[in-house]
User: What shape does this take?
Amino acid sequence: MEYYHIPSSVEETLSIADNYSGNYTYFAGGTDIQIYRKQKLDTHDHIIDLSRLDELKSITVNKDHLHLGAMTTLDDIISSDIINSNYPLISEAAKSVATPVIRKTATIGGNLLVNNRCIFYNQSKEWRDSIGSCLKDKGDICQVTGGNKSCYARNVSDTATALVALESEIIFLTPSGSIQKPLTELYLPCGIKSNELDEHSILTGITIPIKAEKWWYRKLRLRKTLDFTSLTVAATVDSDRIARICLNGVSMSPVLIKEALKSLTLESLIKQARKNCKTVENDLMPLKYRREMINVYLKECWETLH
Ligand SMILES: Cc1cc2nc3c(=O)[nH]c(=O)nc-3n(C[C@H](O)[C@H](O)[C@H](O)COP(=O)(O)OP(=O)(O)OC[C@H]3O[C@@H](n4cnc5c(N)ncnc54)[C@H](O)[C@@H]3O)c2cc1C
Ligand code: SF4
Assistant: This one.
């Protein structure tokens, strides 16, 4: 049985979520979660549609901070003059997500909370049943490593890569009030549960504190017009010459390397990336190629930032 709810305020949303605790799914643009429903990876009975939460659809600048409401669409971000003039890295990342039609409904909040992916998990139920389920699918073994402890499903959010490189913070509402914290703290080091946003919470917005003096962005994927990332790198340098380089699509959560630009050598950048990215053979592009491309992207990025 499936029940559909369309609240018109954040408070009403939390109250419905509380009523159906453990048995609901939020729909923002629905562009990711609908596939999970179809593939029976999400089987909750209650769907809470967030599309009428107009209070979460905004792009504002406040005391030098940019604020994005969680229900702002990627298309609105791409066509925003404020963002294109002052935060071009964000629109560049938004442009690299999916297709123009998808970006008309896909939201920034949904993109930050997109589930981690793996070629052994993001398949139809029949496909998964034929090989046996894995740790992320309530099974007891990882189909990639044969281990029984860790899941290496990849974080694939392209906008998260850019927003981490801009040191962004997220704001979410819980029944006991609003909480703000660094975006990096949203993500978990295990692919089974992609983020730590818990039951009864709703992501309401994102705050971006810094403007980059220099930035760089690149996404590797099979088909440029459609596919999820095989490797995304976003980098910024701020007015204090601090470099922030974020890699995504190659580990369970975005990997951030932050260092003064003058002391950052290419060798140490590659070494830190190699150490922190837990890259395994679970993408359409081969592991060896993706590892090589980390070096290629970091070299290009390092040269551009200097
Ligand atoms: C063909 C195709 C290609 C795609 N390519 C890419 C790609 O290149 N890069 C990429 O990053 N993504 C891609 N996607 C996935 C998806 O379209 C995007 O990630 C999109 O931004 C998700 O936003 P949404 O609003 O549709 O999220 P939804 O699908 O509505 O939600 C995604 C998740 O976030 C939760 N959620 C959403 N909003 C909130 C909130 N405010 N509070 C709490 N929980 C919330 C939902 O419950 C769900 O678990 C692709 C999808 C398709 C179908
Ligand atoms: S990395 Fe392993 S446990 Fe995780 S989704 Fe893939 S096969 Fe499943």
In short: The mean pLDDT is 95.
